[in-house]
Amino acid sequence: MKVVIFGLIVLLAIFHQDWWWWDDSSTLVFGFIPVGLAFHAGISLTAAILWALALHFCWPSGVDEIEETADSSSPKGGTDA
Amino acid sequence: MTSLLIILGYLALLLFLGVVSSRFLKGTAADYFLASRKIGPFLLVMSLFGTTMTAFALVGSTGASFKDGIGVYGMMASSSGIIHSAIFFLIGIKLWAFGKKYGYTTQIQFFRDRFDSDKLGLVLFPILVGLIIPYLLIGVMGAGVMIEKVTGGALPSLFAGSGSGPTAVAAGAIPYWLGSGVVCVVVLIYVFLGGVRGTAWANAFQTIIFIILGIVCFTTISAKLGGMQAATAAVQRDNPHNLRRTVRPDDPLTRYHEDLKVYEKRHAGWESKPTTERGPEPKKPRKPHGISMLHFVTYLFIPLSVGMFPHLFQHWLTARSARSFKLAIVAHPILIMIVWVPCILLGIWATSGMIDGKPVIPYGFSNPNAVLATMVKTLTSPLLGGLLTAGILAAIMSSLDSQFLCIGSIFANDIVAHYIGHDKLTDRQRVIFGRMFVVFIVLITYLLAQTRPGGVFTLGIWCFSGFASLFPLVFAAVYWKRATKAGAYACVLAAAGTWLWLFAQAGYGANRAYLFHGMMPVATIVAASTVALVLVSLVTRPPSTSTISKFFD
Q1: Reduced to 3 DSSP states, what percent helix, strand and coil does chain A have, rounded to the nearest 5?
Q2: CB pairs under 8 A between A and B
Q3: Does the residue B538 lie in any domain?
């Protein structure tokens, strides 16, 4: 499922380039939104839906346990050894 | 006067929020810089959205669509909806987890640890601070200009007007130096009082304000233009190229031709004057040329900057839990859409809207960033004008506050505490060092802003490109075990070198439309930094087993 979700997100990024309506100024959605803008508003909504699916199916393992095991010591940084 | 009172009331409210949030401060550095890592989902989404949406979302987007049409939404908004959320999900949660496990407060601490290199911090520190200063400059200048424009006539006994033409300052207007200074001081006060918790509260408040005001302005203005359908129909008739990403040979280009007539008249008048009496030469309007596919596609690299913004890193670390990110990841693209779609529509309507036979935006108008303010002033009431100014100030200040705080945090933690010793400094001393550095940087920014450097908004794109060019570093640090210390240095140096070279090619920002082989320069810079990181990592010694087990097991 993880592959499918991330595949869909990549597909969305490709669709984002919009070869269909980028030269269309006559089609209007609801009578006032140019179709190229409506398409991109749709991209924004689809992004929200896909990210919701990603949260459900691709949630990283182990991060929910971190709250309990956190160590708040000060970091020491690198050594340049 | 109405506008001035609204602005003053708004600034007073912010100070009040700062005072209230200061009552929750526990007096520790962790609480001041990270709100004790207790920020929940709602405040996190508001902080992240408020911080990433600068004044550009309201003012710049309207101006950009006025110039270039609807393609601006795809370039800057829907791309951000995909990429910002991807970064919150793929990078933000990972970095939050490392921060929580290993006690990081800044991204430099993470990079030092991950690449086992102390000096990497010294290389990154000036780059990150240097890239943030132009970003701060945009906010401080934007606030000063906005207040000066809308308060004309408010206090004529105190402030006389000055200048003539497009740069004239109306009598009684709060001068630029005072407006920008007051905004800096107000943000400093609420950041000092409430720390990151204060900025989160202020960001939530300010984000709600600018969303509501955006919607109110949109509905009022569209009604004045005869309704949404009539407003778009006028664009279809006179300037249809603004409704698509291309310009056709048979397009009427009505606004361009009218702008050109005004320019020719102004230019003839300018030329007829003796050289000593001439002001600045009028600017010729740019003929619309559409947005090429390559330009559009390569603009996708700009939102990668979010992965390296130090102020966003700090907001990520404030999250109470990984689950707190969920709302931000889903809501971010929707919030962007709610703010941007009305602004883009207002911009395209402004090209062709007429009231009583006169264009809403006069022909020959040369400042696209003033399109929204002009529409609001012409088509709405002074009350709404004042409220809109408050909304724009909200957008500016919700980015400035996080940037002020993170600059202080980087200095206090990555320079002072790191070299003096974390154990030798009390929390109070660390916070004081942070505040002192912020005041120093804000003072420099304020003084620079008084010189009103030209092309500062173009500089903003270069500053975003700089952060985006370091994105491969953070991505590899989190996901590629084989990324090495030498690879990290190579990445940073390649990014800095390519950035400087292309910036010089663009006349140090003077050429505002500069593209490198038809592409946004950022695409080449990201490619160079990625290649350097990968090649140098592959030929150098892999990270130690302890580093790999710390970050990848």
Answers
A1: 50, 5, 45
A2: 175
A3: no
CB B239 within 8 A of CB B254: yes
pLDDT by residue (tens digit) across A42-76?
999 999 999 999 999 999 988 888 765 554 555 55
Greatest mean pLDDT among A1-15, B41-55, B134-148, B186-200 lies in A1-15
Looking up tokens 């990110």 gives B325
Please state, in angstroms and rounded to a whole number, the distance separating the CA atoms of residues B491 and B497.
Answer: 10
CA distance B235 to chain A (A): 9
Q: Which of residues 177-206 of B touch A (CB under 8 A)?
A: none
Distance CA B274, CA B338 (A): 51
CATH number of the domain within which B360 lies? 1.20.1730.10
In a domain, B363, yes or no: yes
B240/A77 Cβ within 8 A = no
- Give domain status of residue A77, yes or no: no
Phi, psi of B354 (to 5 degrees): -125, 140
**Is B226 within 8 Å of chain A by CB?**
no
**Biggest alpha carbon–alpha carbon distance for chain A:** 66
Considering CB atoms only, which of B79, B102, B423 is closest to A16? B79
- At A77, the pLDDT band (50, 70, 90 cuts) reads low
- DSSP-assigned states of every residue in B60-110: HHHHHHHHHTTHHIIIIIIHHHHHHHHHIIIIIHHHHHHHHHHT--SHHHH
Q: Which domain, by its residues, includes B368?
A: 2-253+288-454
CA dihedral sign, ordered B191, B193, B197, B198 = negative
Domain assignment present for residue B110? The answer is yes
- Give A58→chain B minimum CA distance, Å: 10
Mean pLDDT of chain B: 88
Predicted ipTM of the assembly: 0.89
Look up tokens 């270039």; give the residue. Answer: B68
Contact between chains at A74 and B71 (C-beta distance less than 8 A): no
**Domain assignment of residue A39, given as a range:** 33-59
Q: Map tokens 């060092």 to a residue.
A: B433
Per CB-CB distance under 8 Å, the chain A contacts of B73 are: 37, 40-41
| Both tokens assigned to B409 | 């945090």
Residue A53 lies in a domain: yes
Q: How many domains does chain A have?
A: 1
* Residue B168 covered by a domain: yes
Q: How many CA atoms lie within 13 A of B145 on its CB side?
A: 21
CB contact under 8 A, A34 and B93: no
